[in-house]
Batch of 2 targets.
Target 1
Amino acid sequence: LQREKLAKMTVSELMFPSDKVVHVQVGNPLDHALLVLVKTGYSSVPVVDTSNIFQGIISKSMILEETLGVEQFELDRLSALQVSEVMNTNVPCLSPDASVLDGLKKVIDHPFICVTDKTGYFDGILTRRAMLKQLNKEMYT
Amino acid sequence: LQREKLAKMTVSELMFPSDKVVHVQVGNPLDHALLVLVKTGYSSVPVVDTSNIFQGIISKSMILEETLGVEQFELDRLSALQVSEVMNTNVPCLSPDASVLDGLKKVIDHPFICVTDKTGYFDGILTRRAMLKQLNKEMYT
Ligand SMILES: Nc1ncnc2c1ncn2[C@@H]1O[C@@H]2COP(=O)(O)O[C@H]3[C@@H](O)[C@H](n4cnc5c(N)ncnc54)O[C@@H]3COP(=O)(O)O[C@H]2[C@H]1O
Ligand SMILES: Nc1ncnc2c1ncn2[C@@H]1O[C@@H]2COP(=O)(O)O[C@H]3[C@@H](O)[C@H](n4cnc5c(N)ncnc54)O[C@@H]3COP(=O)(O)O[C@H]2[C@H]1O
């Protein structure tokens, strides 16, 4: 049964390793973070510290919300704010040994899930695309 | 077999109907479109004309790329540009009668797929979340 196969497959087998994941540093100013997001085209990316310990997630929405002023978008506010002040730290993570079946539950509500080991070290991300590709594959196996 | 069940289920059964979908008009200026995207929190939404005929997709990325100037983000350019000049018209669509199995293939590469009838009328969107929820359900049936 497909469920049993996916219960045995681990998240580490489907995830993008951290060296392939665009990220920002927790101490970066928001104008830099927005430039990274616009140039790479990603709507949101992980935030880490200098030891590559996972901190949270930052998105274009979170940054642009800071610019909503009386005069519409006030982007000069961004150089004075840091990623740490705006990022979302309340996000689920997965262990690299978690099953793909557990991963499926989590990506229902999140475009990607950060994969972290027991020490909080950032190992990679499990994306909806990788999950959907695998499930599509299962349909024809 | 799960594949047969999903081959018989239609996209219209899983899609969000157009009256529940945030969208912008093809003639809107880009500053208005960006405000809609920031306030609703969506990274991209469908574009329609005044007769609700599907035109394409617009995203925060596409709009912000227009503001990348010498002086970093130049947002005052946005009121002078229209959604039509920046939107992506090269996007796949699905018929409401297409199978969920066909829909699965398409959402592998797109966070959502617009559903249009034979006349190009915008019926709704099929999202990855709806697809993943259904596939998760199938795992336990
Ligand atoms: N440069 C690119 N090349 C090819 N396809 C692209 C692309 N940028 C976006 N896409 C497509 O658009 C989807 C949504 O991207 P988004 O940036 O909103 O949302 C992304 C982004 O927030 C994050 N992500 C994906 N890959 C990443 C990476 N290498 N570094 C950092 N974040 C990543 O995970 C979310 C889900 O990614 P997923 O692959 O499932 O889904 C992606 C992928 O199907
Ligand atoms: N206001 C909200 N409430 C609850 N969850 C939210 C949310 N905004 C975003 N999310 C979550 O984040 C995912 C990615 O949203 P995004 O805006 O990048 O990408 C969205 C957006 O571009 C579009 N979309 C979804 N619902 C929409 C709607 N009602 N109107 C217009 N576009 C929509 O389809 C993409 C995929 O949506 P999906 O539901 O699979 O996946 C959504 C959903 O899981």
Target 2
Amino acid sequence: MITCKNLKKSYLIGGENLEILKGIDLTISQGEFVAIMGPSGSGKSTLMNILGLLDVPTSGEFHINSVTPGSLTDDNMAKIRSRTVGFVFQQFNLLARTSAFDNVQLPSLYTGTRRHSIHRAKDLLTAVGLGDRMDHPPSQLSGGQQQRVAIARSMMNDPEMILADEPTGNLDGKSQTEIMALFSGLNATGKTVILITHEADVAAYARRIITIRDGLIVSDVPNIPP
Amino acid sequence: MITCKNLKKSYLIGGENLEILKGIDLTISQGEFVAIMGPSGSGKSTLMNILGLLDVPTSGEFHINSVTPGSLTDDNMAKIRSRTVGFVFQQFNLLARTSAFDNVQLPSLYTGTRRHSIHRAKDLLTAVGLGDRMDHPPSQLSGGQQQRVAIARSMMNDPEMILADEPTGNLDGKSQTEIMALFSGLNATGKTVILITHEADVAAYARRIITIRDGLIVSDVPNIPP
Ligand SMILES: Nc1ncnc2c1ncn2[C@@H]1O[C@H](COP(=O)(O)OP(=O)(O)OP(=O)(O)O)[C@@H](O)[C@H]1O
Ligand SMILES: Nc1ncnc2c1ncn2[C@@H]1O[C@H](COP(=O)(O)OP(=O)(O)OP(=O)(O)O)[C@@H](O)[C@H]1O
Ligand SMILES: [Mg+2]
Ligand SMILES: [Mg+2]
């Protein structure tokens, strides 16, 4: 369960205060499937980085499962993050000289759940269509293949919540359908899925569509997937 | 004018020969507007890197403006590339600790055409909607903003040909329309535009749509833009 009240984020740049998030009020319950849309530069990734405990708000209230991340030490924040959140970054953020298989397995090294990790990493890579590319590092993978490695990695620790930032930006229609089926399947088991997208046919899979414009939520409506 | 005959590209990986392009026959004339589509991992970026003189084929014929790039020294290939081709990379490839403005201006440093470069870089950044983000480095730009810096940079040297690899993957509808208007405008002045996309509404702007599947062209059809 995530709650935000009057959440703000700003940067001090060149001596000026640049306000990115201007007061976000938001509640997302466990098990929801939410799509976040909005213009380029409107603050979607900034918000998702805060929800994923990768960044802190400048002001406002933010609670995740009745814990206030702002009051935690960096270590405790990292611990909660690695167990609770699976993150798919907009730019993938894979380790460069590391195979697809080792990239996917990485999250299990942080939480110490090594026992089934080899099987699980292989199953996840096969589920995203990369069974024959496991030993390729990012430089030997296409853009969409790297994106799918990042998606598999986000699911490694079986987190309660998956945050995916533009997860289908580099995928053709068929790969996109396979990935959205994966997210829908996860959500059907009770996981919370929050994804940022600019593609309406991706947002259509969600049961709730939030639109952000210029750092504020301008609409928040239920959606019935086709 | 680009001509390819039985163009192949393969990699030796783990002792095995992995064939990516399996015999591409293709002619693209000056001034065409071409979209290349196809599944993730089918070889689109690999082909575009060869057409953009950033990589060499393993075998087959390849000519650009009656020059055979394979017979050139690296230096001469770089010279022709910097004057002839504007490239928008799938992962943007911006310089990290460098402002948007300096990133856009960079190509003019290679060709020595500095005189108008300051004005031109500013005009291009304004044309892609980033007039108020010129001094931000990539880490202070959103994904779609970085993509638009890469698009502006590709146009800096006013090249004869623009190769754009998934140029709208991180853009919302309005930004996408603005960028496609920019490409269409360039093409109307006689520049060749070749773009890779998986979005049908982006490919619709082109007058020719080529589909690649598993390293081969499976269809090559004219298209009438709406
Ligand atoms: N350096 C390399 N060594 C080995 N294989 C490679 C290398 N670079 C790319 N590949 C493989 O070549 C194939 C084609 O890659 P390419 O990047 O051209 O695909 P693409 O059509 O652009 O895909 P996408 O739509 O996902 O960007 C992929 O299966 C990839 O794994
Ligand atoms: N470190 C930073 N310092 C200053 N400004 C920043 C920083 N990071 C992001 N910004 C600015 O914050 C705004 C929002 O960025 P954000 O990445 O959240 O946008 P977005 O909605 O995800 O856009 P996109 O759809 O293009 O990915 C942008 O205008 C960007 O320039
Ligand atoms: Mg973003
Ligand atoms: Mg590609």
